[in-house]
Design a protein that fits this description.
Elements (H helix, E strand, L loop, with lengths): L3 H8 L1 E2 L2 H11 L4 H4 L3 E5 L2 E5 L22 H14 L6 E5 L4 E5 L6 E2 L3 H11 L15 H4 L4 E5 L7 E7 L13 E3 L4 E9 L5 E7 L8 E2 L1 E4 L4 H11 L1
Parallel strand pairs: 8-12
Antiparallel strand pairs: 1-13, 2-3, 4-5, 5-9, 6-13, 7-11, 8-10, 10-11
Helix pairs in contact: 1-5
């Protein structure tokens, strides 16, 4: 049996512009930034919200095989369920409206697509991480007001041009905000996003923050995993096989 890190690394895949275009074309889906006043782009050394910025107009050149950006956490969840249905797989996410929120349930045992948990994201990153570039100017010299992505609280990094990805986990930069059961969480809770950008001389600390789930920016996209790959489930499979 492969290790947890290898399992996730083998399954974690960026969602491309072309894949997202098919989703929008087949469902007439409108992303959060298209419905809520536009997305965030970085212009003249600061973040600006552009009303016409979207995954299809990201204010930069993109090919169909490039990772899609300017998508919110909600957009990513909806895409995952659509892709699961398209491929004849069980959908990982179900929704239960409440008075003040909408509860999102994830079935980690589903064969369908879903966002990685933070631990799955980190395992996939560690399996493929490249060493830091030598001779780079220290990122700690960047103005902390200018470097922060709007809508996020940052524990590490949060740099201007970091490529970030949504994770399933709700919470804040200190952890999961007291949530012990990741299988059911609120739709409006901040969500962890992670990036490969690092600070520190040896690049030990990847960018890590908690973002508004409605946020969308030119640096923010997502990857998907499939199947039951959580550490607890791996332990269960090992016990069953022993």
């Amino acid at each position: 049996m492969t290790s947890q890190s290898n399992e996730v690394h083998a399954e974690k895949r960026n969602v491309t512009v072309g894949e997202f275009r098919e989703f929008v074309s087949r469902t007439s889906y409108l992303t959060d930034c298209e419905r809520r006043g536009g997305g965030w782009i970085f212009v003249r050394k600061r973040w600006e919200q552009k009303p016409d910025a979207s995954w299809d107009n990201p204010y930069m050149d993109q090919d169909e095989d490039d990772p899609v950006v300017l998508v919110s956490w909600h957009d990513a969840v909806m895409f995952a369920n659509w892709k699961s249905a398209r491929d004849g797989l069980g959908q990982a996410y179900t929704f239960q409206p409440t008075d003040n929120d909408c509860m999102v349930h994830v079935d980690f045992a589903s064969a369908g697509y879903r966002l990685p948990t933070e631990s799955e994201w980190a395992a996939a990153r560690s399996a493929s991480a490249s060493p830091p570039m030598p001779g780079k100017k220290s990122r700690k010299s960047i103005d902390p007001v200018d470097r922060l992505f709007p809508g996020g609280l940052w524990g590490e990094g949060g740099w201007l041009l970091d490529k970030l990805e949504w994770c399933w986990d709700p919470g804040d930069v200190a952890g999961t905000g007291g949530i012990s059961d990741l299988a059911t969480t609120g739709f409006t809770q901040p969500r962890i996003c992670r990036g490969k950008g690092t600070d520190g001389q040896n690049g030990e600390h990847p960018s890590r923050g908690a973002c508004d789930p409605f946020a969308a920016a030119t640096t923010l996209g997502f990857s998907l995993v499939r199947g039951d790959q959580t550490p607890a489930s791996s332990d269960r499979r090992r016990r069953l096989m022993s």
